[in-house]
């Protein structure tokens, strides 16, 4: 715990420190994005420089790539790494089943690809991210810019048909212009009254033409490390992945 940091940053740092203890020499590690993941990249950089820890990182955004380079962490693309041992990332919300809402930082597309191509995903968070039911945090949905307003209307119609009434489907802005993701796309933030079945909602959103990916992470996270302002960290493990269990390491399945 550092006296110079706010309780919130101390909590993020505590979770980050505990998470990087799971990283072993030779691992290929997915590096998340956001203010909590920032501390993880910083702690990992310290291990690389001080212990000579030999790992490669796959960043989930241009921001994280820049930070990892500054920290002296070797980075490669996901296609170069092919499959990852571990991904460590933050989250906007996690529920008791360790399903998540992500994308508050606008990086959930790359984050979901990287986490799903990993043997294990660890989420690092402060206690404010724990919820009984997902949905208080606006759900980010990445869409391609072409036909964006038609995509918005189709999202709204699908939500109504599923009896999920969105209060607002808001285009994320960066100053006066739409926010642009690393993949050149835009984001709608969905303020939902409730998310009944997050699995169903995720599938339904991804069926709308123009939607690239939504911020629901279902059956992807294996472990949540919750940091506290006093420097403590608690680790909650989940059982084996349900939906992704058979799909783990698709390259191994291909005999590659
Ligand atoms: O999904 C994310 C970025 O796309 C972040 O992990 C999420 O927004 C949490 O960020 P923070 O740690 O800053 O609260």
Give a quick rundown of the structure.
This protein is 32% helix and 23% strand. It has 256 residues and is an alpha/beta fold.
Give the distance, in angstroms, between the N- and C-terminal Cα atoms: 45 Å
What does the largest sheet look like? Answer: 6 strands, mixed
Q: Which percent range fits the helix content?
A: 25-40%
CATH architecture heading of the largest domain: 3-Layer(aba) Sandwich
CATH class placement of the largest domain: Alpha Beta
What ranges have pLDDT less than 50 throughout 5 or more consecutive residues?
none
According to CATH, the fold-level topology of the largest domain is Rossmann fold
Question: What is the count of helical runs?
Answer: 8
Number of strands: 15
Strands ordered across the widest β-sheet: 2-1-3-6-14-15
- % residues in beta strands: 15-25%
Number of domains: 2
Tell me the series of helices and strands, N- to C-terminal.
HEHEHHEEEHEEHEEEEHEEEEH
Mean pLDDT score: 93
Sum up the overall morphology in one term: globular
Ligands present: ribulose-5-phosphate
Main structural class: alpha/beta
Radius of gyration: 18 Å
Detailed description of the structure:
This protein has 256 residues and is α/β, with parallel strands linked by helices. The chain folds into two domains: 7-131 and 219-241, Rossmann fold; 139-213, ACT domain (Alpha-Beta Plaits, 2-Layer Sandwich), CATH 3.30.70.260. It has eight helices and 15 strands. The strands form four sheets. The protein has a six-stranded mixed sheet, with helices on both faces. Strands 8-11-7-12 form a four-stranded antiparallel sheet, with helices on one face. Helix 2 links the parallel strand 1 and strand 2. The structure holds ribulose-5-phosphate.
